[in-house]
Design the sequence.
């Protein structure tokens, strides 16, 4: 047998563990930094949105932080789409917080923009 190839029969459980670890590292290394960044943003977004819904974070601050985090991501079509909608949502939140629109109007507009965003991301 060619010595360049791993012979699992002779190496035992240590070789299998090393092979498994190598494959795990390879799988992580092959995932796109863009995908990882968007996943990280999505986790933050869900947590921060829950805070805004609970009243622990102002909506305008939530959307401002969303904008800041999105602009730090690697460029992508998905990022552009999210940025566009975040600007609309930030503007709507500021109108709500300035009492230019009611809570009902804000929620309706927010849901409409978020629904459009989800449709565009599909």
Sequence:
């Amino acid at each position: 047998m060619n010595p360049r190839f791993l012979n699992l029969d002779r190496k035992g459980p240590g070789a299998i563990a090393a092979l498994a670890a190598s494959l795990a590292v390879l799988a992580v290394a092959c995932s796109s930094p863009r995908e990882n960044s968007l996943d990280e943003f999505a986790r933050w977004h869900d947590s921060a949105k829950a805070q805004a819904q609970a009243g622990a974070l102002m909506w305008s601050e939530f959307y401002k932080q969303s904008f800041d985090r999105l602009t730090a991501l690697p460029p992508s079509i998905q990022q552009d789409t999210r940025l566009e909608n975040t600007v609309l949502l930030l503007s709507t939140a500021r109108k709500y917080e300035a009492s230019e629109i009611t809570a009902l109007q804000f929620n309706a507009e927010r849901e409409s923009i978020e629904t459009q965003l989800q449709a565009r991301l599909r």
About this structure: Residues 25-31 have pLDDT under 50 and may be disordered.
